[in-house]
What does this fold into?
Amino acid sequence: MKVLALTQALLGLAASVQATTVDYTTVTGYFLQDETSTDASTFDYTAVNFGLINRTYPADRHLRNPHSLTQWERFYHQVQKWNEESPKDVEYKVLFLGRHGEGWHNAAETYYGTPAWNCYWAELNGNGTATWFDAALTSAGVSQALVAHDFWQKEINEQRIHTPDNYFVSPLVRTLQTANYTFTGLELPKGSAEFKPLIKELFREGISIHTCDHRHNRTYIHDLFPEWPIEKGFSEEDELWNGVTAETSAAQDVRSEKVLDEVFFTSESIKENSFASVTSHSGEISSILRVIGHRTFSLNTGAVIPVLVRAEKNTKERATVSSVAWTASAHCTAPPVTSVSACVCPSSAAPVTTPLVTDV
It folds into this structure.
């Protein structure tokens, strides 16, 4: 039944045809993370004002006294000016893409090494000491989320940054916790949107056979944060994870484009609501960056980058996709013998493509 549900969900996603499509483009020249000279591995968003480049903007000429405003105030004014002057089928939005803090799955991968993690340990719910099924944050992960919290407050106080008009979050526990630690308790500017993130299925991590990618049921998620809305159509059980097949990058990009289509040009996301926060995962953020044409930029756990996106509707119908490519993944049935770069199953534990965890 689980595989059938998975197939139905994927075919429904793949075969959808919209009356219009949306073309996404990254608008460069405004953030350090857009530039090839910026090294993602050493990038510290807290040291460089979220990466916002110190520069003038065309819209500055419409301000009476631009020198009295902060960089973020002038940039926000520029984004608003673009939206005001653009056709109705064009929308500019700044997406604050935040990766969750360190989860128990991240700690376990470091402990076991990536080869052993991928081909055996990740297919279990835990090891008796730690649990990484729908992994929660470690204490280090909580600290990383609190760094983001404190930096947001600093930007509010010193830069008078416009805080997000909309908040979105993946349904996996580590992202829910990260969003909560990051935004709860901030002293928001008067008139700011309340932090009450919308939980969206398709902002989840790339779906592999790892149990850390298997979400809890809807009831569990609601009970964690009962005040937070969950999108319509969100299923009680996880219909996208089965422990057998893994989502390819191409398949993930299809759903990333679909969920972006749900963020842009909606009644909740009118042009004036030009700043949005998305708390998600490294793989999903990488997919979003591909969809919007941004250069590859890997985020450390707990990191946040804004990207400026131009979205434009066009009248061409989206071509029907008959299937979305997923792949079966083999794994050991006992702890592997590993090398630095590869995994070797013991002779008594030949690789299989059936789940190690059966209570799914």
Notes: The domain at 2-102+137-329 is CATH 3.40.50 (Rossmann fold). The mean pLDDT is 91.
